[in-house]
Predict the structure.
Amino acid sequence: MNPVELNTGVAHSARIYDHLLGGKDNFAADRDAATHITKGWPHLAISMRANRSYMARQARFIAAELGIRQFLDIGAGLPTSPNLHEVVQSVAPESRVVYVDNDPIVLSHARALLTSSPQGQTAYLDANLRDPQAIISSAQFLETFDLSRPVALSLIAILQFVVDEAEAYEIIDRLMAPLPSGSVLAISTVTADSAPEEVNAGVAAYVAKGIDEIARDRAAVRKLFRGFELIDPGVVLVHRWRPDEAARALPDEHVHMYGGVARKL
Ligand SMILES: C[S@@+](CC[C@H](N)C(=O)[O-])C[C@H]1O[C@@H](n2cnc3c(N)ncnc32)[C@H](O)[C@@H]1O
């Protein structure tokens, strides 16, 4: 693997997230930022765990109920158990996954994401969500996927970093354009609806640390799916999306992400 350029003196969202989930792939600047952010946003770690559990539930649903076998996961994050390919390959071992992230630390751990079942395939692409053309013209995308069959695009806990709505719409449209009908779009992103004071303070703390972030209300998250057909239950707080028992036990005020899955007709 090529040496990666890593500025460990500046906080990065992937490593803040890793620290809050109890991981070890983070540095002092990330831990300081996490301490600063969680002062005003004390339930952030609970919300992130609820999001991670949503990621697994929606991926399992897409594989088991919709029969999709190809997954493009942008903003994959550091390896955390279970990873998306483990979830979908436990349903269908032949599933193929392309992980995309632009954090060098995630790149340096990509090997842990590339442990495919023998029947399936995983690939890793170091690319920026904000350059969708680079993603859909990459060898990883073109060689891993059969574009005559549906693909699930996962944008899980990443669109809060794209603060401009027009840019967010364009990114989604560009990424969904080459995917055939029957493909799906799965999103989760930050909201302040369930805890306005706490989340707004937390988002301001991210911005103060140099990480642009936006909290969207339900209507704004629904609009991210414009042009696609939302699958039941639509856009809801992530712990309310086809919940398991643990998710059902969480109070709304502790969960600050909306999630939804939609189909391209
Ligand atoms: C909060 S984490 C979410 C990780 C995972 N999707 C999950 O939900 O558990 C956000 C991830 O998006 C990545 N990310 C942020 N902005 C990005 C961009 N413009 N292009 C690619 N990845 C990005 C970060 O490096 C980080 O790994």
About this structure: Residues 13-14, 17, 51-52, 55, 75-77, 101-103, 106, 128-130, 156-158, 161 surround S-adenosylmethionine (CB under 6 Å). The chain has one domain: 13-263. The radius of gyration is 17 Å. The mean pLDDT is 94.
